[in-house]
Amino acid sequence: MKIIIAGAGAVGTHLAKLLSGEKQDIILMDEDDEKLSRMGNNLDLMTVNLSPTSINGLKEAGVANADLFIAVTPYESQNMTACMLATNLGAKKTVARIDNYEYLLPKHKEFFSRLGVHSLIYPEMLAAREIVDAVKLSWIRQWWEFAGGALVMLGTKMRETAEILNVPLHELGGQNIPFHIVAIKRGSETIIPRGDDTIRLNDVVYFTTTKKYIPYIRKISGKENEPDIHNVMIMGGSRIAVRTVQYMPEDIHAKIIENDLNRCNRLTELVDDKVMIINGDGRDIELLREEGIRNTEAFVALTGSSETNILACLAAKRMGVTKVIAQVENVDYISMAESLDIGTVINKKFIAASHIYQMMLDADVSNVKCLTFADADVAEFTVKAGSRITKAPVKDIGLPKGATIGGLTRNGEGMLVTGNTMIQEGDHVVVFCLGMMIKKLEKYF
């Protein structure tokens, strides 16, 4: 598969690194030669110092033979123009990064497709949705819904109060337990567990289950006494912050603290009247106390500095905030954030890469999630007629090492999977896998 990525910024370079290990034919193009030189020589890709909006430049990059053209420069208009040109020069499929929510409305999809822009991605909006999912339940670290919520996956950290510590998984209740443990994150290692594995203190455990059993998982995880979230304080009035408060449930009250007065004035125009806008420094402990940090259950740090966000979350935890969420765009700081017990980390690069990666897949994949901490992915496959996964029980299919089936939905109903489960055509199957292994799993579906 020949893939051209236009834009060697944060999203483009991260995506190029991910895809270069997939044995794809990757070309990274950018007008800034310095950005391209930072990529190093150890990646299996080609870099070209050309403009993505130059017809000659696109021709020289070989766009006529491109299976996928991805425009992720910082400029929306440049991305849209590049995709239109690429399509007209022969690219089979195009993806543009945008920052205008209006373009994503369903009524505009056909219009942009006719112009040659086949898919649109808005990383800030995707990040905001992940933040809202994370604050819905105070005791979880990550949360995903599959098939409209018929099946859910959640990650939560095991404290001393958890009932399932130090018990081999095969002793947790046999075939009738209403959940499946798909992975355990222990230190820097991600484990796909077997029956003789045990859950230890401070493990982050990833469960799949149906919504009615979420209270049960909360109980066995020892999280029943953690307060529900009603008040959220957001540091930084970024576009992600605006989208976050727009998606926030009605019963959660939000405050945004922004240092720039002009931005504060703009925020009052962009968000609902019920959202309080505060002009000040979110690192100011006295200001946080005055604004009710002691009565706040969730603190979200969304400034442009990863270091500031991590430190602000640590300060909020010391002041008693149950749930802290930090935007960490510097990938090198993600493991540090985890070691400091920052509950949820938001990284636009990972989120955008997951969605673009989904577009590369030949199988019918409706959902791909990147687990920020775990170097792993979750994918939702729709099973095709006659596919390999339907030929035998799950235990005899021979899934590659590092992959496990977390559950499935059939006719809209969520089901957990055992070794004896027979998967059928039309099922929506949730697969958990280490690394970027999703491409290897396509042949099963």
Indicate the radius of gyration in whole angstroms: 22 Å
CATH class of the domain at 2-121: Alpha Beta
Q: Any guess at the CATH architecture of the domain at 2-121?
A: 3-Layer(aba) Sandwich
Q: Tally the helices.
A: 14
Structural class: alpha/beta
Report the CATH superfamily of the domain at 2-121. NAD(P)-binding Rossmann-like Domain
Give the terminus-to-terminus CA distance: 19 Å
Mean pLDDT: 88
Shape: globular
Q: Main sheet, how many strands, which sense, barrel?
A: 6 strands, parallel
User: What's the total number of strands?
Assistant: 22
Helix content: 25-40%
- Relative strand content: 25-35%
Strand order of the largest sheet: 3-2-1-4-5-6
| CATH topology term of the domain at 2-121 | Rossmann fold
- The poorly predicted ranges are none
3D architecture notes:
28% of the residues lie in helices and 25% in strands. The relative contact order is 0.11. Among the domains are: 2-121, NAD(P)-binding Rossmann-like Domain (Rossmann fold), CATH 3.40.50.720; 230-321, NAD(P)-binding Rossmann-like Domain (Rossmann fold), CATH 3.40.50; 351-444, Regulator of K+ conductance, C-terminal domain (Alpha-Beta Plaits). Strand 4, helix 4 (76-88) and strand 5 form a beta-alpha-beta unit. The protein starts with a strand and ends with a helix. The model has no long low-confidence stretch (mean pLDDT 88). Strands 3-2-1-4-5-6 form a six-stranded parallel sheet, sandwiched between helices. A six-stranded parallel sheet has the order 14-13-12-15-16-17, sandwiched between helices. Strands 7-8-11-9-10 form a five-stranded antiparallel sheet. By secondary structure, the chain is α/β, with parallel strands linked by helices. The protein has helices at 10-20, 33-37, 55-60, 76-88, 109-115, 123-136, 214-220, 239-247, 261-270, 285-290, 306-318, 334-339, 348-360, 438-441, and strands at residues 2-6, 25-29, 46-48, 68-71, 94-97, 119-121, 142-146, 151-157, 179-186, 189-191, 204-209, 231-235, 253-258, 276-279, 298-301, 323-327, 344-346, 365-371, 376-382, 403-410, 413-415, 428-434. Helix 6 crosses helix 13 (348-360).
